[in-house]
Amino acid sequence: MVLLTLYPIFGQQISPANKAKQETYREISHRQQKTGWILLGVGLTTTVVGAAAFNESWDSPSNSSTDIFGFLMLGGVISTFSSIPFFISAGANKRRAYQLSFDLSPQPFINSELTGLALKPQPGFRITVKF
Q1: Nearest 5 degrees, angle CA 27-CA 126-CA 103?
Q2: What angle do CA 89, 93, 95 make, to 5 degrees?
Q3: How many Å is the Cα radius of gyration of the chain?
Q4: What b-and-e string marks burial along 3-17, b requiring 16 or more CB atoms within 10 Å of the CB?
Q5: Percent of the chain at pLDDT above 90?
Q6: Is the torsion defined by CA of 112, 116, 118, 123 positive or negative?
Q7: Where are the transmembrane segments (predicted)?
Q8: In principle, which of 19, 22, 43, 65 could form an S-S bond with 80, CB 3.0–4.6 Å?
Q9: How far apart are CA 28 and CA 98, in angstroms?
């Protein structure tokens, strides 16, 4: 009985605009995190391969192979460090998707007492946590 009387107050819907914005931030966060992990994996792999090959070619008479592996190692380090901004911005977008939302717009609710099952706007204050 109490649930039925409180449903018009607490059973309000989330506006579609906020829902779409939340999904957009989630998608952006997911793509940025995926890009960060790819850059980190490729960077660490090329750094390790470049360093191992650079060490092996250090005593060789050809300096060009040593230079190539040195540049490969340098490219891996740059790729590894370039993944950091992607992780930072992915975390910021994830926080935006989960932030608290305050809404003072009229909220539709089902008023079955007066007009049957009809949606009528009612002034309301809504606080939601978006997941």
Answers
A1: 65
A2: 115
A3: 27
A4: eeeeebeeebeebee
A5: 37
A6: negative
A7: 36-56, 68-88
A8: 43
A9: 13
